Amino acid sequence: MFELDQYLQDLKSEKIKLAVGVQAKIIQAARDFLTKEGFTEILPVIISPITDPLADYRVRGEVECYGFKYQITKSMIFHKQIALHTFPKIFCLSPNVRIEPAERKNSGRHLIEFVQLDLEVREASREEIIGLGERLFSYLIARVKDTCQEELKFFGRQLPDFIPPFPRLSYQEAITSYGENFELALSRDVSQPVWLVDFPLEVREFYDREDAGRPGVLVDMDLIYPEGFGEALSGGEREYQYERIKERIQKKGISLEAYDLYLKFAARGLYPSAGFGFGIERLTRFVCGLSDIAETRLFAKKPGVYSL
Ligand code: AMP
Ligand code: MG
Fold it and tell me: Which residues line ligand 1 (CB under 6 A)?
């Protein structure tokens, strides 16, 4: 059922107008920051024979074109790696479609269509990308505080200054302190963003790089918001060597055939790289202090709900 009256009322509300206005300024600020840092913005890929496997999402979202099967982008991870042949530092405002389980309808954090600020840097280490993420995050918050005073007042939102470096916690430490489902418990417990590092191989996709000195541990990270807003971004160093990628795909029980085209690129050589994907709607939710992510964009699609 599509509730047209409610939908129109929401579209005309001051709340959504101001939240989307803040979001537009965040995007502008991110573009300014990354351009100054030497990044080139590339256009998003919407359909491709390959996309992020994201094993949790059973629906593949396939489109048939001219008898070939394309998938709707779940993330541009592989395209980012391949795009580094052209530019050393790239970013993209990349729309992702992930058919989240309907139970996530009221999580406040999940949409089935959302946008990532997705970036990747040739020859970068995790350390460098953590540094970049911290500078980007503090810059965005400072710009919002400077340019969105009226909006923040409307939302009753007081944002502190977030000064890097942010604290770090390993995945194992997070489990020990907060249990298996640590994301929200950890996020509620901290008053500044915190990096989660060193995820075990089993809980991530095949493209995050395994630490050569610590088998089973990945050179990756998440940034967790304070105040219970949960995960802000995920990233890491990437596997880039053909044999390693093949091995990691097989370890996941995924058929090599499904990634044939990606493997062909890998066989010809990929750059070592690191990067992350930063959810724009979640960032807007955090900045405005909103309980529901659906209030951060027009045409928001919540899991399990029929929407425009
Ligand atoms: P991932 O690679 O799955 O960690 O996704 C990268 C980032 O995109 C996450 O850290 C979130 O900020 C954002 N994100 C992931 N899934 C969703 C979703 N269903 N709705 C809104 N934002 C999302
Ligand atoms: Mg993640």
Answer: 75, 98, 100, 110-111, 114, 116, 231-234, 277, 279, 281-282
